[in-house]
Known about the structure:
Elements: H1 18-40, H2 45-66
Organism: Streptomyces olindensis
Transmembrane segments: 21-41, 47-67
Protein name: AI-2E family transporter
Amino acid sequence: MAQANRRGPGREGPLLSQRAAIVFLLAALVGIGATVLAALAGQVWPVAVSVGGGVVAPAVLFFNQIID
């Protein structure tokens, strides 16, 4: 999917597209949710944070595929 270059001479463009921002936001929310669920399941916080961090990369790949 090709997008037009929105940056002109002397203009600052956005750092992320809206699609990328939504993908990263959803992945972050999934990671936070997994961390909270792991903590509520009785895992110690370092393990719960590791679980949440491990879920973020697959979530980015998943949301990148389904959001078009």
